[in-house]
Design brief:
Length: about 325
Amino acid sequence: MAKEPVRVLVTGAAGQIGYALVPMIARGVMLGPDQPVILHMLDIPPAAEALNGVKMELVDAAFPLLKGVVATTDVVEACTGVSVAIMVGGFPRKEGMERKDVMTKNVSIYKSQASALEKHAAANCKVVVVANPANTNALILKEYAPSIPEKNITCLTRLDHNRALGQIAERLKVQVSEVKNAIIWGNHSSTQYPDVNHATVNTPSGEKPVRELIKDDAWLNGEFIATVQQRGAAIIKARKLSSALSAASGACDHIRDWVLGTPEGTWVSMGVYSDGSYNVPAGLIYSFPVTCCNGEWTIVKGLPIDEFSRKKMDATAEELTEEKALAYSCLS
């Protein structure tokens, strides 16, 4: 029996990330090679023509799994019946703008999208927010969609997680598939903490801790962290555009693992609603190590945290607490 198609929403679909993301979804990278999809693409009216161009290309690519495309500027039409929502659309910070200005713009965008998702999406819709400030945009969405379970609203830190794995693999000259269990703690911003204390590499003589193999704590506690934190800025400098391909790939990984499960013994990083684990203030959307099974994520508990890590984890929580206060001041 062929599976029923799953409706997947991509907001900001005419943009760079959307353009990289929709073919991945249509090819089965996100939900599996046997799962048909119907793509719902939303963008703002000035991008309507470009959005239609993306729809034309999706038709021209003749993806066997793609059973339909909805390209629209209407938020209700876009959200109706979707089971997965990837929120890429947001207001980018422009030169000379204060954080509060950006936050105010994003509050109004996420308010309307949250209300539409709440009223019109499928019952157990899974949401991942990609647009920055991702953690806080997810929190705003949660505020305005109270009937969507908090466990279904997440933000993307998988891109940072993948960046950390990539840096370790490059340093050790191994395949990235051999590296696992790095952690991104906290905010998808330059305060995030990429933690390798629990990460391992599969070697011919078994699994070995990353720290033991790299044998350079100064690099791991300094340059490595800074490289992962600043990678987005480095890509903008090189490409004159922000990272799109890697962000799209990270979003696919995030949803795939959430829906289909993480491999045994492996965890990934997801921005999720804090329950107070690891002394992170409850009520923030904070990136934790998680495992996924049967469409549910679970925070990995009980990992030992050293003093260096504690400080980094607290600093990024503090930034998120400030961002939350700023966002709530824009809600009124």
